[in-house]
Amino acid sequence: MNPFLLLGLCCLFLGQCKTVKISGPVPNPPIKHLAVVNNEDVHMDDFQSQMVEQIRAMGIHTTVVPEPPVNADYLTYRANWRWDIGMYLWRFTATLHRPQGAMRSMMYGNTGLDLGKFGEAQDKIREPIRQMLLGRP
What are the DSSP calls for the chain, one per residue? Predict the structure, then answer.
C-alpha cells in the first residue's frame, strides 16, 4: 500500500472531529433569568445539575421547570452519549426561547477516533453554552 495513502487514512481517522454550531441572534437584552426545561430522557447522572450550575456561574438566575413557561426566557436541551472504549458525549443541542420570539440554538457534536472526546461532559459544553447565552467565549 502507498505510504502516503496510509498516512492520509490515519490522519482522517485519528483527527479531531468536534463540531460546534451556534445560530440565531445574540440575546438582546441580555438574559437575567432563565428556566431550564427538565429533560427526563437525559440519563447521565448530574448532567442537568452541572449544566444549571454553569449557567448560574455566568450570572444568570436559573431554575429547572417541568414545562416551558409562557412569558419567560427558557432553555430546552438534548444530550446523547455513545460508546467507543468508554462513554462520551456524542451530541448536545440546546435552544434558547425568548418571549419576543427570537431563538438561538447551539449544537455540539463529537465523532471520530480523537481521544479528546472522552472526559467530563460539563467540560465539553461550558464554552458552547457561554457563546450561545452570552454571545462571547
Answer: --HHHHHHHHHHHHS-EEEEEEESPPPSSPPSEEEEEP-TT--STTHHHHHHHHHHHTT-EEEEESS--SSS-EEEEEEEEEEESEEEEEEEEEEEE-TTS-EEEEEEEEESS-GGG-S-HHHHHHHHHHHHHHS--
In a domain, 30, yes or no: yes
> What's the grid cell of residue 106?
447551539
Tell me the CA distances in angstroms from 39 to 66, 111, 129, one per residue in order. Answer: 8, 23, 17
> Could you tell me if residue 51 is inside a domain?
yes
Residue 23, strand partner residues: 105
pLDDT for 85-99, tens place per residue? Answer: 767 777 889 999 998
Tell me, yes or no, whether 2 lies in a domain.
Answer: no
Mean pLDDT value of segment 68-80? 93
pTM comes to: 0.79
**Is 95 within 8 Å of 103 (Cβ atoms)?**
yes
60: domain range? 16-134
Per residue, the 3-state secondary structure of 34-53, as one string, reads EEEECCCCCCCCCHHHHHHH
